[in-house]
Amino acid sequence: MPELPEVEITRRGLLPALAGQRIDAVVARHTRLRYPLPRTLGRLLVGQTLTDIDRRGKYLLFRLDRGTLLVHLGMSGSLRLVPAVEPAGKHDHLDLLFGPRALRLRDPRRFGAVLWVKGDAGTHPLIAPLGIEPLSSAFSGNCLYDATRGRATAIKLFLMDSHAIVGVGNIYASESLFRAGVDPRTPAGRLSRVRCERIVTAVKATLEAALAAGGSTLRDFIHSDGGAGGFQQQHLVYGREAEPCLHCGVKVRALRLGQRSTFYCPRCQR
User: Fold this and answer.
1) pTM for the structure as a whole
2) Largest CB tally within 10 Å, which of 66, 73, 117, 149?
3) What structural domains and CATH numbers belong to the chain?
């Protein structure tokens, strides 16, 4: 699933190319995504100018003259800029045409979402409940410490809870906790302020490193220009079960937390 780095990289790739451009046409090939595409999407969007692209968690917010197009890439989605005349593939469900180029949504599993919001997108039911942005200055050791008091849930699951912190998915939670030296099963409420500070520092460092590397391309994620991310080559524990820890040599272990695979070093993470 595209996580915060992948969504942010998509935003950064699209904004310079599309800011100030007008939508000339909308081509919807398959309307059944996570939520059905609005039947009036073409009539709503054609003629509007894209003024900005924001990100909130894993959502992209395409700011237009009269509202916001809210896009989530789901489990396997991607947005690419392609020539408008390029034939669409089996999983290419939606095109927004900007002159000779098309912004094309590809989503093999059809779990993505494209929604039109006329008013304040921040009050939309999918956006309003979202937690703190992990790369913001507001996300601090004290913030994490206060938020985890009384919480018995494992710290890895807490980091992945979008109502608490947005965008830290499975890959980056595992990698961050390894950097912080914290066992992913540790009850969040038992963490000291010192360990919370280490986790926050590790989360920020991990996400920044992923952004610098272009994100992680494990299956379906590609950049808006068709390129791939390279952070998977820097994974310290994720996907490395039974391989030696790069720090101590002990074999990396895997377990299931919240129905997701979790990777950790039993020696380095306590």
Assistant:
1) 0.91
2) 73
3) 4-123 (3.20.190.10), 141-264 (1.10.8.50)
pLDDT-derived band at 228 (thresholds 50, 70, 90) equals low
* Side-chain-side CA neighbours of residue 100 (13 Å): 1
The catalytic site residues sit at: 2-3, 58, 260
How would you label 92-121 residue by residue, b for 16+ Cβ within 10 Å and e otherwise?
bbbbbbbeebbbbbbbbeeebbbbbbeeeb
